[in-house]
Amino acid sequence: MMRQLVSISVVATVLMFPTVSAQVAAATPEMDKLIAAAKKEGQVEVILSGQVPRKLRAAMPAFQKKYGVKINFQTGSGRKHAERILAERRAGRFTVDVWLGGANTALVQLLPNKALASFPELLIDPEVKDPKLWFKGKHHYTDPEHRYIFTWGASPAYNISYNTKMVKPEEIKSYHDLLNPKWKGKIVSWSPGAQGTAASSVPMFINPKIGEKWFRRWANEMKPVIVTDARQAAEWVAIGRFPIGLFGTSTQAEILAGQNFPIAGWLPHPMAEGEVLSASAANLMAMDRAPNPNARNLFINWALSKEGQSLFIKIGEKTDSLRRDVDNKVIAQQYRIDPEGEYYVPFSDPTYINKQSEIITKLRTIMKEAGYK
Q1: 67 is a domain residue
Q2: Does the residue 272 lie in any domain?
Q3: Do 24 and 108 lie in a common domain?
């Protein structure tokens, strides 16, 4: 049975975001026609799955206020949503229009079952369609065909957390510094082969300056302590049980830093091997055979507009927009994309997209051969 959908009040937006521009999408006959058709449908059904998408509940009233189209949204586990949606589709029911969330569920469950609509054809607003307004002058897709999973945001990836009383930042300027014998047995980490760490570990594996050799040395020589709970790992770093945390500990480290523990979730300088952009759950997908196709398309064009993206990064706090005309000063410095910076962008790299599962399997093998379960 489908759980109750939540209708959003429009009052919150007026109170929370009085300075956000009320500009309308570019006025074109096609946009006018879409708006009219969406209003007739009257509602749009949205999945918000993942840490950042769940926060974006607070952005939804702006769309409803602007267009008079009600948003019904659901949060929760992406895997469970996908299982329900696929079961409904097998029974001939189609209940979801748009999905905001991580790419893994889409790649593993939704895309193979043809549950997603091709995205480029749905972009109507001229300022959304224009690739020059986006990072590296193009739209970014996290799927092999570059047309189903639109990646709208990212931020620099931080793999290393550390106890600020035990580690000086200048001691770690390269990933190879983590192979220093002084850190043997003193690193706590999620496994690099865990599905949740793929956004961090797979780009490192692909990077020729790090690669498979680094992981084998790290697992065999450094004897890291592997845990399955990121909070536990961060707490151990915060209380000084371990000086360094790796793979998946940075978010929890920042929370603890905010509680005045001596821990940092990111290094104040780039790593010598280069920086990586992580999209996390900043992806937008259109469901095939949507119950409200016009409202779906209108929501997508609004979400990717300057107005929508400005709201998204302000509320999401830790993700920058890939639109380059959005003011990112509303988020902390460490989450901003430097327009002059050089980054590896895994979500646009066919090697990352097509070989992620293969590399994760290799990482699990490396850990198993080093004596880890």
Answers
A1: yes
A2: no
A3: yes
Tokens 């369609």 sit at which residue?
129
Produce one character per residue of 58-78: b if its CB has 16 or more CB atoms within 10 Å, e if not. bbbbbbbbbbebbbbbbbeeb
Distance CA 286, CA 282 (A): 14
| Residue 284 belongs to domain spanning | 6-153+279-341
Are residues 163 and 149 both part of a single domain?
no
Number of domains in the chain: 2
Contact call for residues 142 and 346 (beta carbons, < 8 A)? no
200 occurs within a structural domain: yes
**144 and 196: one domain?**
no
- What span, in angstroms and rounded, lies between the C-alpha atoms of 103 and 356? 12
Where residue 131 sits, what CATH number does that domain have?
3.40.190.10
For 173-178, which contacts have Cβ atoms below 8 Å and span 24 or more sequence positions? Answer: 173/269, 173/271, 173/272, 174/271, 174/272, 174/273, 175/204, 175/210, 175/214, 175/271, 175/272, 175/273, 176/214, 176/272, 178/218, 178/222, 178/244, 178/246
pTM given for the model: 0.81
* Residue 199: per-residue pLDDT: 80
Regarding whether 251 and 218 lie in a shared domain, the answer is: yes
pLDDT at 341: 80
Q: What is the mean pLDDT of each run of 10 residues along the chain (373 residues)?
A: 38 37 62 97 96 92 96 92 95 97 91 97 96 95 94 94 98 97 97 84 93 97 95 96 94 94 94 90 96 98 98 95 96 90 87 89 96 91
